[in-house]
Specification:
This protein has about 350 residues and is of the alpha/beta class. It is built from ten helices and 17 strands. The chain starts with 11 loop residues before the first strand and ends with a strand.
Length: about 350
């Protein structure tokens, strides 16, 4: 696995919009605030041509222009790249991104989440280039950085390669058009649901036992991964074969999928052969939280499909759409320790 240089003091940050840009509130003000804060911290900011566009369908602009922006910034003189935001149709950019050329290009760290799975997943899988599944640029514009933002920035700088969970999470955001720089509204206590094998080799919830495992991290937003599955950009089985001796730790979370959609999505990835050599699953709180359908809750939607792998399934983690989120280096090797509501992911760059 290839790793880009971490952001150094006075380094450069490229902002690109392969998914949504930042043309309307509260995203525009948050974007401008982030640029101002990072500039004041001594970093050089270069904005891509699509950051302030909104003439695309489900993203900033047309796929050709989005693909070109991605390639130009990866090949340009920029230290790290951060996405403007998530969106809906970033998958359409992929035919215009030359992953074979990126294989030969010096690795760079790209950070984003949600629809940006289309890069944070494909870069490690297709170009052997690690990426960070973490916040988009507007999050860094909040009035006062949350602890999780400080931690993610430390990960981007390489000063702390461990990620961990947080005590509380945000059920209802205070961020609005009128209040674009609102801090997180952390009202809900984090309660992890750790499923491990019992004496009869069945998955059973056990939050008292300490769990540890290691392997190579890969994953992202289920909404996007299902779209990639079975396409010419799906080289997941080849990636797994390459790193089979490490074993794979999957991190997964969902945006718009309800519990039945999550169950179907995991069934699809499973039957496509994606979960071979899996060591464990790290599951973030779904954005549609605690909304059972026909007696199926968000836990059985996952464990019912994954129990056959006889590996730990850790759920309701700080990954993805419900803030705060911890950064994860997609493609990195990791050592994971968890117990109760605590988890630590130590990234190892090998």
């Amino acid at each position: 696995m290839r790793y880009g240089d971490f952001l150094k003091n006075g380094g450069s940050i490229g902002l690109i919009a392969p998914s949504f840009g930042c043309t309307f509130e509260p995203y525009r003000s948050a974007f401008n605030s982030a640029v101002e804060k990072l500039t004041d911290m001594g970093y050089k900011i270069k904005q891509g041509p699509n950051c302030m566009k909104d003439d695309g369908i489900g993203k900033s602009t047309d796929p050709v222009s989005c693909g070109k922006e991605v390639m130009d910034f990866f090949k340009g003189d920029i230290d790290v790249l951060i996405s403007c935001g998530g969106g809906e149709t970033m998958c359409e950019d992929l035919p215009f991104i030359d992953f074979e050329e990126l294989k030969k290009t010096k690795a760079k760290l790209f950070m984003g989440y949600s629809d940006n799975t289309n890069l944070t997943f494909t870069l490690p899988v297709l170009a052997d280039m690690a990426a960070i599944y973490g916040p988009c640029i507007g999050t860094f514009g909040m009035e006062k950085w949350d602890e999780s933002i400080e931690d993610t920035f430390a990960l981007l700088r390489g000063t702390d390669l461990s990620s961990h969970g947080y005590e509380k999470w945000e059920k209802e955001s205070l961020k609005t058009e009128e209040n674009p720089l609102a801090v997180y509204n952390l009202t809900e206590k984090s309660v992890h649901r750790n499923f491990i094998l019992d004496e009869e080799k069945r998955l059973k919830e056990d939050n008292e036992k300490e769990i540890s495992f290691e392997g190579r991290l890969i994953g992202g937003c289920l909404d996007s991964l299902v779209g990639l599955c079975g396409t010419r950009f799906d080289k997941t089985k080849e990636f797994i074969e390459k790193y089979k001796d490490d074993g794979i730790i999957w991190f997964l979370e969902a945006c718009d999928l309800n519990v039945l959609s999550i169950r179907r999505a995991i069934w699809q990835l499973d039957n496509a052969g994606w979960f071979k050599c899996c060591k464990a699953f790290l599951i973030g709180r779904p954005r549609i939280f605690n909304e059972p359908i026909m007696g199926l809750d968000q836990y059985r939607a996952v464990t019912g499909q994954l129990e056959k792998y006889k590996v730990p399934v850790l759920m309701d983690l700080d990954i993805g759409h419900i803030s705060p989120m911890m950064g994860i280096i997609s493609g990195a090797y990791a050592e994971v320790r968890a117990k109760g509501n605590e988890i630590c992911i130590k990234h190892i760059l090998k």
